[in-house]
Automatic annotation (TrEMBL):
<keyword id="KW-0472">Membrane</keyword>
<feature type="region of interest" description="Disordered">
    <location>
        <begin position="384"/>
        <end position="408"/>
    </location>
</feature>
<feature type="transmembrane region" description="Helical">
    <location>
        <begin position="51"/>
        <end position="69"/>
    </location>
</feature>
<protein>
    <submittedName>
        <fullName>Ectopic P granules protein 3</fullName>
    </submittedName>
</protein>
<feature type="transmembrane region" description="Helical">
    <location>
        <begin position="248"/>
        <end position="273"/>
    </location>
</feature>
<keyword id="KW-0812">Transmembrane</keyword>
<feature type="compositionally biased region" description="Acidic residues">
    <location>
        <begin position="385"/>
        <end position="399"/>
    </location>
</feature>
<feature type="transmembrane region" description="Helical">
    <location>
        <begin position="341"/>
        <end position="366"/>
    </location>
</feature>
<feature type="transmembrane region" description="Helical">
    <location>
        <begin position="89"/>
        <end position="112"/>
    </location>
</feature>
<keyword id="KW-1133">Transmembrane helix</keyword>
């Protein structure tokens, strides 16, 4: 006979069915209620720190006054505002790429990679990196005069380094939720609710068995190897796995949180690996791939593919030619807008990726609210059971215990007192 699952297991199995494409009538209200609860909790947490709240309000008031007050400083204010918004945008994209709340948004392929490629192609086409600002960095146009210095690989790296480093720092920030989740579960000793954390614990238990190599698949053995080396090597191991393209790095955060690795050891190694080492590798690869003549060579290679090669080559060539013409457009010049099938397909793919990412966030919020309801119900049942037990014990004491002072007439005529034992 198989043992019946626990209430926590049944609750978790029910929560896994709460997804938008299966139960939209439940997911949408649950997600909205979770947002409302998070907003209320944040409001009361802010009120709990009155001194910090007062200083923050004063700082915001002074910043708003300085932002709107007329004067010579407005030119510097606009410059600072532009840089802060631009830098914050790349940090946010990095966080979205790694945190995902269940499904990361591949912002490198959608935003950062195309930005580096556009700067690289423009540098070789314009023979300069002194793009007019504005419209750069929102859009790229060739300057009116060419630079006397030849464009090099390291000059392009320097041009896109800030955006790349900020994106890498955002990806490091996005790795913190698995770390804190596993750390909190280990300290509290509660049964984990996160699917990846439960998979990690099952993998640890299976790896201890004698026939683990036969039971585990290739992917599970790879995960076990990553977990073992991170736990054994510590900071160097985290730095190594953060510095290479590694889809299993979420396991590194869970491993470090489970084994209570210090925060700065985990975050420091992750930040150095992702923002400095890995980001320069990815940035260099994109620059080399889209540098002078490499794009044309790549198109020629695609043309050699049997059956489909000629059909692929023409749309890509048209897209590259359109990009070159846009670089030489003068400000205010109107250009004919035409969309190729390739550009339309890429836009459709990006739209689907963003939509799926948004739905994953909604599903995650709905599941969190379902868990909140379950925890509330469990606390109520526990309080009810405690009250019933307490009342039962009081009734039992009253039935068994005689009055504290009851005068009796003893056999020899003396008046005695029954003393409670």
């Amino acid at each position: 006979m198989k043992p019946s699952p626990s209430q926590n297991t049944l609750n978790r199995m029910e929560r896994e069915t709460i997804v938008f494409w299966r139960r939209p009538h439940i997911v949408i209200p649950y997600a909205l209620m979770e947002i409302a609860h998070l907003a209320v909790e944040l409001f009361f947490k802010i009120l709990a720190h009155k001194t910090v709240l007062l200083l923050t309000a004063i700082s915001i008031g002074l910043a708003v006054y300085g932002y709107h007050a007329p004067g010579a400083h407005q030119e510097h204010v606009q410059t600072i505002e532009k840089h802060i918004l631009w830098w914050s945008w790349w940090v946010l994209l990095g966080v979205l790429s790694s945190i995902g709340l269940g499904s990361g948004l591949h912002t490198f392929l959608i935003y950062l990679g195309p930005h580096i490629a556009a700067v690289t192609m423009a540098a070789y086409e314009c023979q300069s990196l002194d793009f007019p600002q504005p419209p750069y960095p929102e859009s790229i146009q060739c300057p009116s005069t060419k630079s006397s210095i030849a464009v090099t690989f390291w000059q392009i790296v320097a041009k896109v380094r800030v955006e790349s480093l900020l994106w890498g720092a955002g990806t490091a920030l996005g790795e913190l939720p698995p770390y804190f989740m596993a750390r909190a579960a280990r300290i509290s000793g509660q049964e984990p609710d996160d699917e990846e954390y439960r998979e990690f614990l099952e993998l640890m238990n299976a790896d201890k068995e004698s026939d683990a190599d036969q039971k585990l698949s290739i992917v599970e053995r790879a995960k076990s190897w990553v977990e073992h080396n991170i736990h054994r090597l510590g900071f160097p191991g985290i730095l190594l796995f953060a510095s290479i393209p590694n889809p299993l790095f979420d396991l590194a955060g869970i491993t470090c949180g489970h084994f209570l690795v210090p925060f700065w050891s985990f975050f420091g190694a992750t930040l150095i690996g992702k923002a400095l080492v890995k980001m320069h590798v990815q940035m260099g690869f994109v620059i080399l791939a889209f540098s002078d003549h490499h794009a044309e060579n790549f198109v020629k290679i695609l043309e050699k593919i049997p059956a489909v090669g000629p059909y692929i080559r023409q749309p890509i060539s048209d897209l590259l030619e359109k990009q070159r013409k846009a670089l030489h457009k003068t400000p205010g010049e109107h250009s004919e807008q035409s969309t190729s099938y390739l550009a339309w397909g890429l836009s459709l793919m990006v739209t689907f990726m963003i939509l799926f990412f948004f739905l994953s966030i909604v599903n995650s919020l709905a599941k969190d609210y379902h868990k909140r309801l379950w925890e509330r119900k469990r606390r109520q049942n526990k309080d009810l059971i405690d009250e019933e037990n307490q009342s039962f014990e009081e009734e039992e004491e009253e039935a068994v215990t005689p009055p504290s002072s009851c005068p009796l007439l003893l056999s020899d005529g003396f008046e005695g007192v029954v003393v409670k034992k």
